[in-house]
Design brief:
Layout (H helix, E strand, L loop, with lengths): L7 E7 L8 H10 L6 E6 L13 H12 L4 E5 L7 H14 L4 E4 L9 H6 L2 E3 L3 H12 L2
Parallel strand pairs: 1-2, 1-3, 3-4, 4-5
Protein name: TIR domain-containing protein
InterPro entries: ThsB__TIR-like_domain, ThsB_TIR-like_sf
Pfam families: ThsB_TIR (PF08937)
Length: 144
């Protein structure tokens, strides 16, 4: 259990792969359960209907992801990202780890399968669908 702490506010980039299902809303609601312990956050993501999402130009998609991620302290991706989102996930992983040095936290949704190899190789931490584990990873990996 996370101890009560002084208020902490952070900005999180949530992977575009969270767009596909209600998991985005569920993840945000899960994180909000830690508000009583001082954890506050803003979320950034690139919506599915963003013009770069349908572009044939991979560079424009990468730049759009990078632009949203730039001001965030940590990146949350689903550990079981469906293959339909591999185009997004790959760009998010590259931007977070290779270019921006952002902590990459993979979250295992309930009833999810084994994390993909690319997630295993690049995530700074893989956590379960548990608010305290997610927040603890955010605090440990992104605190100044």
């Amino acid at each position: 259990m996370l101890p009560p702490a002084k208020p902490y506010k952070t900005s999180l980039y949530l992977s575009c792969a969270w767009n596909d299902r209600s998991a985005f809303r569920e993840l945000v609601a899960l994180l909000q359960t830690c508000r009583d312990r001082g954890f506050r956050f803003d979320t950034f993501l690139l919506p599915e209907d963003h013009p770069a999402a349908g572009a044939d130009n991979e560079r424009s998609l990468y730049e759009a992801v990078r632009g949203k991620m730039k001001y965030c302290q940590a990146v949350l991706i689903p550990a079981d990202a469906p293959s339909a989102y591999s185009r997004w996930i790959n760009k998010e992983i590259i931007a977070a780890t290779s270019e921006m040095n952002k902590p990459l936290i993979a979250v295992r949704p309930p009833d999810s399968g084994e994390p993909s190899l690319i997630v295993k190789q690049n995530a700074d931490r893989i956590v379960g669908w548990d608010a305290e584990a997610i927040v603890q990873a955010i605090l440990e990996l992104s605190a100044p």
